[in-house]
Write a structure and sequence with these properties.
Length: 244
């Protein structure tokens, strides 16, 4: 296929699923991680089984110097960049009065600034080729009010707005920008929720279950493909009906 994708936060969860799916479709893949080198290397090994190239890159997406170095490595090692999946994110729920300023800064750094740093670097690489796709992983929390998630929801709302504006800005350069808004997906992030909260959320999902990482990866692969060539600036909700 001769296309290269970078997936941030790909050592686990949704990012891992997207990286493996893109590898299975013939993309060479850069697997970004923050701390979990062993898991990232396992994802790389998994992807290489498809006969494509894959590398693991450690970078904190909330750190601009790390991000710049990561994109230099992608181009040096894999030659180009066609698809960025901005996925690395954190959740740290708290009621407003319990909100810790360090946690607020961390969420804003990773979930918002990190997406901008990566989108900016990706665009620098895609400009020359006059083509590229950026997919931002938002959340259904940007569309509905879940008590305790004000910071997380605000970061994901920022991503939705960023997606629409960047789509308009970058369309003349052949770069499409979309977001996906998953509901509750079976990953470590959801496993961390208290059991009673999880059960309460599942009761509210019309399709009656958590989503699977593979279902999210299929949507990301579609948005990355030429089958989605006329779709840009959208936030595609994938939540089993939770937000209806
Ligand atoms: P997860 O299982 O907790 O995995 C998080 C991934 O992000 C890991 O690979 C982690 O790397 C990486 N990461 C964390 N901080 C990072 C940083 N500063 N720099 C680079 N990488 C970092 O999360 P997930 O559930 O797959 O969620 C992925 C994305 O989907 C997030 O943006 C999340 O908000 C969104 N989302 C998730 C759900 C859900 O139900 N799971 C629903 C809606 C939206 P290490 O392994 O190295 O720590």
């Amino acid at each position: 296929m001769n296309k290269v994708a970078l997936v941030t936060g790909a050592s686990r969860g949704i990012g891992r699923g997207c990286a493996i799916k893109l590898g299975s479709l013939g993309y060479d893949v850069a697997v970004n991680y923050n701390s979990n080198e062993e898991e990232a290397n396992k994802v790389v090994a998994e992807i290489k089984k498809f006969g494509v190239n894959a590398i693991a890159i450690k970078a904190n997406v909330g750190d601009r110097a790390d991000v710049n170095a990561m994109f230099r490595t992608v181009v040096k090692e894999l030659g180009q960049l066609d698809v960025l999946v901005n996925n690395a994110g954190v959740v740290d729920d708290a009621f407003l009065l319990m909100l810790n300023p360090d946690s607020l800064d961390r969420s804003l750094n990773i979930n918002v600034k990190g997406y901008f740093y990566c989108a900016q670097q990706a665009t620098l690489k895609m400009f020359k080729a006059k083509k590229g796709v950026i997919i931002n992983v938002s959340s259904v929390s940007s569309k509905m009010a879940l008590a305790g998630q004000s910071v997380y929801a605000a970061t994901k709302g920022a991503i939705n707005s960023m997606t629409a504006t960047l789509a308009a800005e970058l369309a003349p350069y052949g770069i499409r920008v979309n977001a996906i808004a998953p509901g509750f997906i079976a990953t470590d992030m959801v496993a961390k929720l208290p059991e009673d909260k999880k059960a309460e959320y599942i009761k509210q999902i019309p399709l009656g279950r958590l989503g699977a990482v593979e279902e999210i990866a299929d949507l990301v692969a579609f948005l990355a493909s030429d089958s989605a060539a006329y779709i840009t600036g959208q936030v595609v909700v994938i939540d089993g009906g939770l937000s209806l």
